[in-house]
Amino acid sequence: MRPKFEKIYMNLALDLSKRSTCERLQVGTVITSSDFKKVYSVGYNGNAKGLDNCCDDKSSPGSCGCIHSETNAIINCTERSSTDKIIFVTHLPCKMCAKHIVNLGGVKTVFYENDYRIKDSISILSKAQIKVIKL
User: Fold this and answer.
1) In whole angstroms, how far apart are CA 35 and each of 76, 84, 85, 87, 127?
2) How far is Cα 34 from Cα 109, in angstroms, rounded to an integer?
3) Taking a C-beta distance cutoff of 8 angstroms, is the pair 61, 55 a contact?
4) Is the dihedral of CA 34, 111, 81, 31 positive or negative?
5) How many CB atoms lie within 10 A of CB 105?
6) pTM of whole model > 0.85?
């Protein structure tokens, strides 16, 4: 049986998460065209380019200093905001990443596999008419 594109791109996001240098949570993101024929961008969480590949602070969740995978994928995405996009991310985005996703423009659906401890992003994305689907 042929795998669905949703599964293929989620597997790619999971593979990308293995490049993460965050000690708490490894996350990967893939941004594709709405017809699944193109990959526009990928990202994983970690420190800024040229800095040490480790967390800045290990004292509490969310304070490690890693740039989130969604943000890295958005930074790398050169498609126009008017172009329809689908996002695959290993974990439900945080509140700020949800806002970044809204500002990217053109995002129709966010697929994720694992829940995040805070679920505020669901209402943010829904208000922007972006579907959120757990695979």
Assistant:
1) 20, 9, 9, 12, 23
2) 9
3) no
4) negative
5) 15
6) yes
